[in-house]
């Protein structure tokens, strides 16, 4: 149901705007290394690899070198690592972009994503191939990315920083995310939320806002 107080809408990226399949990445790294997928997941989790990259503690070169170190593959190319890491990124349906463009006539739109620079480069390529739009920045007033902010959802501070930087009031702001922890954290701050759950998409959840 539409909340008439809403003036601003913040979108998550993965499985909200862009379709993703997170396990594919660990499968890809397993194929590169000859290790089992479960071992890859364990290695990366124990060493906090993705969190370090997605909060900017590792830059692109640092991430790639750490992957080589953890997998024991010193000759693994940058391209091979990037391709494996990006394999979880699927398609970006043009109708979701059309919805964003329609909503932009009545609301201030923002993106807030836990992500990495390698992913964003690839997402922009997918976006342009799908819609002709060159980059996410062309769809949103501000694009908030975890690796730039040094924070990740569901840390309350990341939402507070977004509200402050964009000059938003929590009660006038709607946030959409597929992760329940992220939704709950935003809700505690007074932000209105929608938990996006497949098979529904933002097309269904926001139909009342797009009229």
From TrEMBL:
InterPro entries: HAD-like_sf, HAD-SF_hydro_IA, HAD_sf, PGP-like_dom2. Signal peptide: none annotated. It comes from the Bacteria. Pfam families: Hydrolase (PF00702). CDD domains: HAD_sEH-N_like. This is HAD family phosphatase.
């Amino acid at each position: 149901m539409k909340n008439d107080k809403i003036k601003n809408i913040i979108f998550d990226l993965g499985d909200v705007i862009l379709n993703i399949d997170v396990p594919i990445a660990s499968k890809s790294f397993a194929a590169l290394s000859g290790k089992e997928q479960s071992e890859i997941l364990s290695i990366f989790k124990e060493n906090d690899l993705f969190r370090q990259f997605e909060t900017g503690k590792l830059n692109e070169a640092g991430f790639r070198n750490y992957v080589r170190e953890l997998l024991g593959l010193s000759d693994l190319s940058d391209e091979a690592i990037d391709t494996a890491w990006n394999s979880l990124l699927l398609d970006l349906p043009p109708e979701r972009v059309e919805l964003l463009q329609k909503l932009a006539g009545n609301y201030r739109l923002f993106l807030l994503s836990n992500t990495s620079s390698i992913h964003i480069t690839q997402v922009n390529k997918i976006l342009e191939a799908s819609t002709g739009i060159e980059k996410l920045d062309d769809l949103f007033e501000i694009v908030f990315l975890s690796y730039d902010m040094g924070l990740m959802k569901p840390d309350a501070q990341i939402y507070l920083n977004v509200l402050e930087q964009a000059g938003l009031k929590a009660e006038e702001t709607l946030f959409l995310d597929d992760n329940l922890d992220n939704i709950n954290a935003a809700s505690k701050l007074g932000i209105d939320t929608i938990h996006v759950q497949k098979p529904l998409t933002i097309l269904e959840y926001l139909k009342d806002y797009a009229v």
